[in-house]
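By convention, each integer encodes one residue's backbone shape. The lines below illustrate.
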Amino acid sequence: MPIKSKSKPTTSLSKKKEASPPPNWPPLKPLVPTSDLVLETILENQIVVIRNFFTSSLCKNYVSFLSSLPLVTTPGQPKRGDAVRVNDRFQVDDSSFAESLWKSAGLEDLVTRSDEDNGMSQQALSQLWGGEVCGLNPRIRIYRYSKGQFFSQHYDESNILSLPTSPAKTTWTLLIYLTGQSTGCIGGETVFYPVLGPAKSFSGKDNDGYNPVVVNWREVTAGEKWVIRSDLCVKR
């Protein structure tokens, strides 16, 4: 049976404990114009991809920068109820960087762009994303998987957030892959185990009308797998 990934059910950004200051992220340049990008559905209502969202040079710049961050290796022995995960990670609450990814990088335009000709009205978009989209989760996670590291079957829970603009909750997980076979990363594939029956989100609360998609990140056998992770937020 798949195990949930480690996360708290609620998050209040206004009452968080003292944390390290956000890093000085590199500029999100160069970028592909959003007019040249599309949302590609891999599995209806569950998996959507944006190919070439980051250019190869931007991926390279970010891998170089992220390598300098104080990544922490996760424990090899998980707590009861957690999936087995062996990777190096960095986590920070940074609303400014989340806003840059959302607006400057073009995610807002791609996610909220209606297309009546293809049946993507505003109502259809709201149904797809699980509500009225209001941005990205300020909690930014950086993952590095080196040779021998992996993440067993798990699903991401939906979280309740207190954002400056509105109360919100997460419905879809955002994963930005920075490396792949072209950069020497072998293995580390993201394997999806689709749920049976209707689902409204890539990752969500199974007790709130959402069927979470089960994911397995296979073991890396060569090179490194780098990922930037956030979440799509909708208004509560």
User: Anything to note?
Assistant: The radius of gyration is 17 Å. Residues 167 and 188 are 35 Å apart (CA to CA). The chain is about 15% helix and 30% strand. The mean pLDDT is 83.
